[in-house]
Design goal:
With about 220 residues, the chain is mainly α. Helices cover about 70% and strands about 5% of the residues. The chain is built from 7 helices and 3 strands; from the N terminus they run H-E-E-H-H-H-H-H-H-E. The chain has a 3-stranded antiparallel sheet, with helices on one face. A hairpin with a 4-residue loop joins strand 1 and strand 2 (about 45). The radius of gyration is 18 Å and the shape is globular.
Amino acid sequence: MKKTFLTWFIILLLCFVTSTFLHEVAHGACSYAVGIHVSTGFNKVGMPFKKPQDSDFRKGFFDKGDNPWDMGPATTLVLAIGFTVAFLKSKSKNKYVVMLLAAFALCNSLIRLIPMLHSYAGLLVRGSFFMEDEIGTGISWYNLCGLEIMRYIPSLISIAVSLICIYFIIQALKIKLPDLFAKRVYFAAGLVAVYIAYIAAFKIETILDNMIRINW
């Protein structure tokens, strides 16, 4: 059982790091497509040929202009939906394949849900959103059309898609990975592993962010 939990944790860790990297790549590719040159890594977007540890990492970054069609969150949501469907449809008897599909589905869902909960917590605590990708996109959409509701559409889409995916993932985990999720105590431990993996992945991503950069 300990080996199974350790395997689940390691797969989660790898999925969080990989999925976050793909999210950042989508930011970079979309910026490049509209003529905005940036650098991306495993966590933050900044000026080309700069690293997050540099004091001028984002100097002039916000003067580059908005990109209302940034595909970072959309890419993550597509991955969340795709892996959720693959997980639900999979008939594989290989436990590790099932774990991998479940982890990618869960990680991509949480990568958007957690930042959105953080943003809306800011709205409740201080009366304004904490800035996240969808909030910035919403502001850009509002500036384009002037409709107040557009400020909230991107974030609400992310919340809705993430929650729907997570609901179906959790229901399927009890059936497809009974060793980890059939019993309540194991189910709780499995979810704790997800939380710890999320925190550990963030630490790893922060380190890698200063080591590996893509200049778009």
